[in-house]
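for the writeup, i need someone to sanity check this before i put it in the appendix. the sequnce is what the collaborator sent (i think, or maybe the updated version? ugh). structure was predicted straight from it, no edits. if anything looks off just tell me and ill rerun, i have time this weekend
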Amino acid sequence: MPRIVTYNVHRCVGNDRRLDVGRVAAVLAALEPDIVAMQELDVGRARTGRVDQAHEIARRLDMACHFNAALTVEEERYGDAILTRYPERLVQVGPLPGHPAIPQLEPRGALWVEVEIAGATVQIVNTHLGLVPKEQQIQAAHLAGPAWLSHPHCQGPQILLGDFNATATSVVYRTFLKHLSAARTLAKVKSPTATFPSQLPVLRIDHLFVSPEIRVSDVFAPFSPLTRVASDHLPLVMDFEVV
């Protein structure tokens, strides 16, 4: 059964303030995923030793990697990635609109990769929304619109996932429920899915949304000594089938 993970890795700096790319890779390796969506990756940044975190984690997991820089400063980049073992192709990367009244907010983006799973073509969209509610609503509406989820090429099985910085009571969450279903509500087993903060997770702000062609078996946030320290978020895992 395919397994997909979304994980905000906090630039591979853990709750012990230690920078450790290998530790984040170990968290993921233990989960044995087929697809990984990550947020808050540093690529070539001085603050994290100029390592390409996205491709280094992909190398350790023996997965293909596509990275989107939401923020670029000269040669330093910061953003999100999709890793996979399946045959894949990059469809689209791009920025998300910000709040026009607060132009100094951190830039945000999204990344769309198409993968082949047992003969089915599945659209995977990874994102990391902003912190301000109005900003999030603008970004969610853009993602739900014709540039992304309603794009003519984004047909059939779809999985939208990432760090939305918004809970299930938010306008953002309801925006995506107009098009997709929340995976955790479809899971056969009801496991804990709160991911933040990782040491004592009480908030569900990392989410997986799926189209009707995705049959969800389980959704869970692994809570272990390693996941509690590797990042300020827990990973969120989904086991599923394409029907």
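The CA atoms of residues 215 and 241 lie 5 Å apart. The radius of gyration is 16 Å.
thx in advance!!
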